[in-house]
Amino acid sequence: MTETLKISLFAGLFAPGIAFGETNVLLIAGPKSHGAGQHEHPAGCELLAKHLNSSGLGIRAEVSLGWPADPAKAAAANSIVLYSDGQDAHVAKGHVAELEKRFDEGKGLVVLHYALEPTDETMAAFLDRAIGGHFQVGWSVNPVWKMNDPLIAKHSVTSGVSPFSIEEEFYYHIKFAENATPVFRALPPMDSLGEDGPRSGNPMIRKALEMKEPQTLAWVAENPGKGRGFGFTGGHFHHHWSNDGFRKLVLNAIVWTAKAEVPAQGVVGKVAATPAYQTIDEAIAKGDLADVKLHLAANPASAKQGGKPTSRPPLEQAVLRNKTEIAIVLLESGADPNTSNASKRTPLHLAVDRNNPKVAAALLKHGAKPNERDESGWTPLHHAAAKNQLETSKAILAGGADPMTLSELGGTPLHEAAASGGKEIIVLFLEHKVDPSVKSKEGVTALDIAKKYKNQPAIDALSGH
Question: Domains in the chain, start-ordered, CATH in brackets?
Fold first, then answer.
């Protein structure tokens, strides 16, 4: 049972100046698939609809999750957008006859990414007729690669689209019908191909790349007396819809296939900045500080809780990934600096793991407790000493750590530094009044350890103390 999603929250849907019914667009989304942030078909359709509805062009865009149960919806649309997985999961499976009827009536069709791979020969033939091509297994490929220096043809669908670079799963080596006209091309690198396989490579593609033949990533089909068509091989990663050129190319195509006028600057929605990534976890993983800030602005509680209840706290994620500026922003936004994981390790312990004195200092500035012991019985300062981390040790001491806090085995940080630390870190602890005469529960001093491990710089620094 499919369900039509009413896009009631779209900015501009009820804005003055929009003439409802003038140009209707129906975006039909397949279910989300793949990993986080990939094949987010419903979210992608909603975002595109939001831009269309707020563009001031008299567009009324609606999203349907799956083929709409009411056949009148598909019939009434001036253009339909298909955005879903392909093959047997294709959102238009079983509905080719309806699409054919629409096409013959002069109504448009936009097909994005995996939806370019048809479910059967009937759909393949229709796609060739309506949009001018489709993904063909054994001929086309679907790698993730960095697209640079695109060749952009002059056409209504490229209005206002400036060149951009992006790493995306752009399909290429599409087999086109005679009615297809390329509008957006680029030359993939040879290393984007894998071993020869159904979707990874073949001799014909290798020869094309060797000959420096640009590959078509977006194209139009003008069919006199019939519907207009547009195909676009991108759309794997949801966050790319935040790229102005990437998004505008598709928005323009939707308007053009609906036989409405595309503005000279392209279709621009009046949409407030929204996060490109679906969760703050993804934004942290990508190191996208601006996107993290958008998540925090939209949901301040996300400073403490990740995208899922099972996620590590965002601060812990940022520290583990060594994303210094993101960690600082999270702290400034209220992230708890004293959470601990299953090993009783706090973010300060993790900052030591990453040898990041700047994060350590920020954690302490925002209230991190410097003397907490982890599961192994060590404070962050014990770990920094054992790793000979001079600058991180300085930051922790400056932040209020007690250098005489003993580990569970009764050792000071000086004991840990004595095993393999340099002269500078030994002197640092001595200057901070760490008592070198302290014996651990094993009955040894720091000097005893330095001698055991034949650490001459530590022996020299500790002798006479």
Answer: 3-257 (3.40.50.880), 337-462 (1.25.40.20)
